[in-house]
Every structure is written in structure tokens, then in C-alpha cells.
Amino acid sequence: MKRFRGTGVAVITPFKNDSSIDFTAFGRVINHVIKGGVNYIVAMGTTGEASTLTMDEKHALVCYVKEAIDNRVPLVVGIGGNNTQEVVNSIRELDMEGVDAILSVAPYYNKPSQRGLFQHFKTISSCSPVPVIIYNVPGRTSCNISSDTCLELANECENIIGIKEASGDLSQIMRVIKGKPENFLVISGDDALTIPVIAAGGSGVISVLANAYPLECSELVNNALRNNFKSSRETHFRFMEAIELLFADGNPSGIKAFMSLMNLCQNNLRLPLVPVNKNVYTRIQKFIESGAGR
């Protein structure tokens, strides 16, 4: 489980002007975040616009990412959905060689009960040949994995090794940390809450900001894990505005604006997502030019 302690980065999927995947830019992004010291990479998550990728594109993307990473850091692949059997099928169809874990989001739209959530993730766990990290993000799914359900899964499903928690509910997160098995990971899914989650006993973050600022995010997390919260706070306060801008007009629209201005990729998204509005883009540009994050 130590492989997923520290800073994970939810990598973007760069697109060309014709909306096809820009694998050249993808390679730049992967090398950028690894050089910046992130501990692992999460591909095909929310920030990677996985919901707009075809199955063929997903297979090509995972194949490319494995080659680009070249065993330098662990790889987590997002495989989730609101049709349990389709998620199982996707896991079985994907070449898992070189994949270290999967990240599976809570079912959206269906609004299952807690028992339904338990059975959903138990089924995924039983069929996955690699460890599973469940992903709680009720702001997107309208479905909250309660602390009781999370702990039940942690205790009954050996293959479920952690949770990416993006509920924003620190009380709920702390209930999980308090009651979890020793090796179960509680990972912040929100850059703004990285420090309090680690201070409560969490194991790190799966970060959006680390796409653009991997070195600084890694330093923040490493300092917090070493209980050097003074240095962590200093880094966090430097990036408070940037974190707000990431989500001011939608994610990953914000991070793609940052990265296009850093010449890491083009500012292209797939509908229904669009680039950030002019005001947010100007504020992002000013933040970068000010050097506030350095």
C-alpha cells in the first residue's frame, strides 16, 4: 500500500484541435509530473475526461500511458460507472499488465442505497485482478458512500485497499480514518483539504493541481506526512488562489487553462466541457505570470 502513499496526480487527457487524443502532449505531461516527484499517476479519471472517451480510445490510452511511464511510478486506471456488469466487463477486457490498481467511482444517476453501493463495489472487488480504490465524490454522483459502508467494504473486501474521498465532509472522512483497518488508505480527493486529511491520519492526495505544479504539490504532501505542517501550510497558502481557479469554471477546464499557458498541452476539451471563460483565464494567466506558485 506504500505505493499509493503521498501524491497521486489525476492526469488530464490532452486533445488536439480535431478532438483526437494528443499522445505527444500526453507524453510531455507524464514526464513533467514524474520529474516533479509525484508518487503515482491516475489515468482516465474525472480530470482525464474519461466519460467522453470511447472504449477503443481507453485501451489505446492505457497502452500508451504504461509505455510512457516505463515502470517509473505506479499506474492507477479509472474504471467505474453506474452499470455494475459493464464495469466488470471493462475490467475483464482491459490488459491489466502494468496496471497497479483501479479507481472506481460511486455509481451516478441511479442513486443506489448503501446496500446497493456495498454490493456494487464488492462485485467489482471480486473480479478485479488488481487492488481497488473506491472514489466518493457526491458532488458529481449525487450518491454518498457513507462512512459505515466504506468501513464495511474495507473490512470485508481484501482487494479494496482505500478510498479517494472528495465528499468535502471532514467529519465523515475522520470517521473512516478512526475506524479503518491499519493498511486501508484514506486519500484526499480535494486539493484544498489535503493538509487537514493528512493531519487526521490520511495517506495523501490524488491531486488536480499536481498536473501543473507536481514539485510543489509533492513537497506539500511530503512535509505534511512528516508532520512538518508549517512548511505545508506555507505551500498551501501560496496555491490557495490557484486551487480556487481550478474549479471556478469547471474541472478539468481550469487545469487545462493552466497547462496550455505552460505550453504542456492545448486548451482543448470535449463537449459538453468547454474552456474556462475569459475572466477566469485572465486570472489564471496573471497567477502564472506573477510567479506566486514558485
Keywords:
13% strand, alpha/beta, TIM Barrel, 8 strands, single chain, 46% helix, 12 helices, 294 residues
Q: Tell me the strand percentage band.
A: 5-15%
Shape by Cα distribution = globular
Strand order across the largest sheet: 1-2-3-4-5-6-7-8
Number of domains: 1
Annotated CATH topology: TIM Barrel
CATH architecture: Alpha-Beta Barrel
Which CATH class is shown? Alpha Beta
- The secondary-structure class comes to alpha/beta
How big is the Rg? Answer: 18 Å
N→C terminal distance: 31 Å
Characterize the main sheet: 8 strands, parallel, barrel
Mean pLDDT across the residues is 97
Helix content: 40-55%
Please trace the helix and strand order, writing H or E for each element: EHEHEHEHEHHEHEHEHHHH
Number of E-type strands: 8
Number of contiguous helices: 12
CATH superfamily: Aldolase class I
Q: Which regions have little confidence, pLDDT < 50, spanning 5+ residues?
A: none
Outline:
This protein has a single domain (2-226), classed as Aldolase class I (TIM Barrel, Alpha-Beta Barrel). The chain contains 12 helices and 8 strands. It has helices at 23-35, 55-69, 84-93, 114-127, 138-141, 147-156, 170-179, 194-199, 214-225, 229-247, 253-261, 278-290; strands at residues 6-10, 40-43, 75-78, 101-105, 132-136, 160-165, 185-188, 204-207.
Description:
The relative contact order is 0.14. This protein has an eight-stranded parallel barrel, surrounded by six helices. It has helices at 23-35, 55-69, 84-93, 114-127, 138-141, 147-156, 170-179, 194-199, 214-225, 229-247, 253-261, 278-290; strands spanning 6-10, 40-43, 75-78, 101-105, 132-136, 160-165, 185-188, 204-207. It starts with 5 loop residues before the first strand and ends with a helix. Helix 1 (23-35) packs across helix 2 (55-69), helix 6 (147-156) packs parallel to helix 7 (170-179) and helix 11 (253-261) crosses helix 12. The radius of gyration is 18 Å and the shape is globular. Helices cover 46% and strands 13% of the residues. The longest helix is centred in the last third of the chain and has 19 residues, at 229-247. The protein has one domain: Alpha-Beta Barrel (TIM Barrel), CATH 3.20.20. The protein is built from twelve helices and eight strands. By secondary structure, it is of the alpha/beta class.
